[in-house]
Amino acid sequence: MISHLSRGFMVEAHDKSLPGLVERIRRHYAKKAVRRQLQSLDDRMLHDIGISRSEIDRIA
Fold first, then answer.
1. Where are the alpha helices (DSSP H) in 1-60?
2. 19 phi/psi in degrees, rounded to 5
3. What's the confidence (pLDDT) of residue 43?
4. Separation CA 53–CA 44 (nearest Å)
5. Which are the contacts of 53, defined by CB distance < 8 A and separation ≥ 6?
6. Which one, 7, 11, 32, 57, has the greatest CB density within 10 A?
7. Domain segments of the chain as ranges
């Protein structure tokens, strides 16, 4: 259920605090950046850090 529209972001009724919304958005972009960085590594580099390409989405 949507409670209101705030600066272009829909805020759900259970998350009425703006800091909570900002934190969720920040986490989303941080995870996206990690995923992008991991995807840019070649398979050997991923192996060196102990992960496979198929694990990237689960990890990031």
1. 18-40, 43-48, 56-59
2. -60, -35
3. 96
4. 10
5. 39, 43, 46
6. 11
7. 17-59
pTM surpassing 0.70?
no
User: What are the φ and ψ backbone dihedral angles of 53, each rounded to 5 degrees?
Assistant: -60, -35
Structural tokens at position 53: 């390409």
Residues 10-49: tens digit of each pLDDT? 555 555 688 889 999 999 999 999 999 999 999 999 999 9
Tokens of 54: 């198929």
Residue corresponding to tokens 């605090």: 17
Which tokens in the block code for residue 35? Answer: 């995923």
Q: What is the pLDDT of residues 46-56, one digit of tens each?
A: 999 999 999 99
